[in-house]
Design goal:
Jelly Rolls; 6 helices; alpha+beta; three-stranded antiparallel β-sheet
Length: 248
């Protein structure tokens, strides 16, 4: 059974992020934030059919496919930075932290799409109303978790924080699966919430300093099940880089 979340009205998103540490936003309101028709976002889902397999999974799994892009946002300026490694410290990712992970870049047709660019800028505008910064350093992760081996793990590292300011998790598609429940917890307490995002382009937006999150494994209901998501992380001041990069 899928538990539907209580949605945050668009007018309350900033207050919810400040007060509760998270907001759950409908696809229609995501389109309003991006200032594009929802159909323009729905059309982007085709780019999730062309994701290479993640070669870094330490559990030996074959269930995760992904691409990666990085941006710097200053005001209304969105600049895609040269392709770079994704790096997290072991403090935030005990399973895959401490190594430079070079994923294939997001497709040029996607990154040049006006709806894609408007989405990133629109979300930055919302976050500026919560935390005013001179620049956001943004990483975009396209994920497909599939059931090749009978089970897929959206968060093999378990419940975690990402070491950024804000995390946005968009559900793009669920096909032939059960599971994939989202669970969020207060980092400094015991309160938690569990729910399942099912609407394409619905969004969980979190204050990463306050919330821990994970998604439960998925299992197939048919011959080929999968779950597509887009994860955007927003960090002030700089990207997370390995010590090797910072010493250069």
């Amino acid at each position: 059974m899928n538990l539907s979340p209580a949605l945050t009205p668009i007018k309350d998103v900033s207050d919810s992020l400040r007060g509760d540490g998270f907001a759950i936003i409908s696809a229609e309101d995501v389109a309003q934030i991006a200032q594009v028709p929802l159909d323009s976002l729905l059309e982007l889902a085709r780019f999730w059919d062309d994701l290479p397999r993640d070669p870094y999974l330490k559990d030996g799994g074959r269930y995760r496919f992904r691409r990666h892009a990085s941006y710097e946002i200053k005001g209304e300026s969105l600049v895609m930075v040269p392709h770079r490694a994704h790096w997290q410290s072991v403090d935030y990712n005990a399973l895959h932290g401490g190594i430079e992970r070079w994923f294939e870049p997001s497709q040029a047709q996607l990154t040049s799409n006006p709806a894609w660019q408007s989405l990133l800028l629109g979300l930055a505008h919302v976050l500026n109303s919560v935390k005013l910064v001179s620049a956001w350093f943004v990483e975009a992760h396209q994920f497909r978790i599939d059931t090749t081996d009978g089970i897929g793990r959206p968060t093999p590292e378990g419940a975690h924080r990402d070491g950024v300011d804000f995390v946005a998790v968009f559900l793009l598609n669920r096909v032939g699966i059960k599971g994939g429940e989202t669970r969020i917890f207060e980092a400094g307490g015991s309160a938690g919430l569990r729910f399942t995002l099912t609407q394409p382009w619905s969004l969980l937006l979190m204050n990463d300093e306050r919330m821990i999150h994970e998604s439960t494994p998925i299992q197939p209901l048919g011959p080929h099940g999968y779950r597509d998501t887009l994860v955007l992380t927003f960090r002030s001041n700089s990207f997370q880089d390995s010590p090797k990069v910072s010493q250069q």
